[in-house]
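Tutorial handout. Part one gives the primary structure; part two gives the three-dimensional structure as tokens.
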Amino acid sequence: MSLVAEAVADLSEDHSLEAVDIAKTQSGRRCRLESGVETAFVAVFCNYIWQHLATSGAEPPFHEFFYIPSRRAEKKVGYDLSIGHFSSDDRIRTMHKLVYRRWCDQKWQWSVSAAFDTDGRPYRTYGHMGTLLQVYAAGDTLEPYLVLHVCYCIHDYRRMGVAYEGYRIPSLDSLLRTVIISLHAVSGQIPGWQDIVESPDFKLMVRKAAPERSDYETSGQYLARIATKDQFEITVEPGNIHLSDCVLTLHQLCDRIRQGFELEPLGRT
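Part two.
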């Protein structure tokens, strides 16, 4: 049984949607609020980065540093979030995906494959990743990252970081909750990567392991042990290519953003 599942069930009256619903809850019932929190994660992700910058002595106006494109524009630009002052050519672009209906302390996997509609146009996730990689290849100042958030439902989301029976439910900055994958690795580690990405057999797979808890481990020790980079495997097909050194923590991404922070206006719009 997942430690996080037990904690969230206890703290949210077994995912009750109504105050009196607990008596009617069926054992094993899935929460009806499993999905719908991807946008919320993008928002709290922005807030976390902004607070990190503020504590480092840089406090850019929020609207000058973060931009979320419309759904229509997203098809063309490929990202969910742009991070960096609007007057600078150096920005970070992130594609966010939610691994939902999964508890963050259990094993999971996520993938994107080559997929096209009846008109031959790439489907959303595959098309967005291709756009990010192509833009980065054209000029390396717009750095592309894939950001995966792991969250079962809104009850889990609302209780991130909450203390429970001697340990904390993994918060946003835990690798159990947020894993950031540098997409530079695709172009940097795969010779002829364009042909791989454009292949009808293309697939990028992220696998997260979660070894069983040992008898001698406390809950906190166990969660810390499985929240490490060595629990992740990133592979690309065709060719069973294993990408290395491409997983970042949220803290590491914040440091990267802080190092490249530039607020001096350059006269562009």
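Part three, for discussion. The first helix runs from residue 3 to 11. Confidence is low (pLDDT under 50) at residues 18-28, 262-269.
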